[in-house]
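User: I'm curious whether this sequence folds into something compact or stays loose and floppy. Could you predict its structure so I can see for myself?
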Amino acid sequence: MEYGIPSDVWFPVVTLIIGSVLKGLYDLMADQRVERREKAARLEMRHDAQMLRKTEFQRKTILELQEEVAKLARATGQMNHADSI
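Assistant: Here's the prediction. I'll summarize afterward.
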């Protein structure tokens, strides 16, 4: 006379539960990897945009500086011409 549940009944149930738990853990780890990858991509895009804004600001500033230096050179030339007359 057997007093326990036969193994052909409890074994499939136990393996189903273990499989479900392991699948849930694997899905959690996969989601975390995807989230880290997306966060890294967002940070890289933000960094690229910041570098683009910085480069554009420098280019604009240098062009404005070039125009002002040209005005200064013309004014200096005019003052020199006025002093020599």
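Summary: The chain has a mean pLDDT of 93. The longest helix spans residues 7-84.
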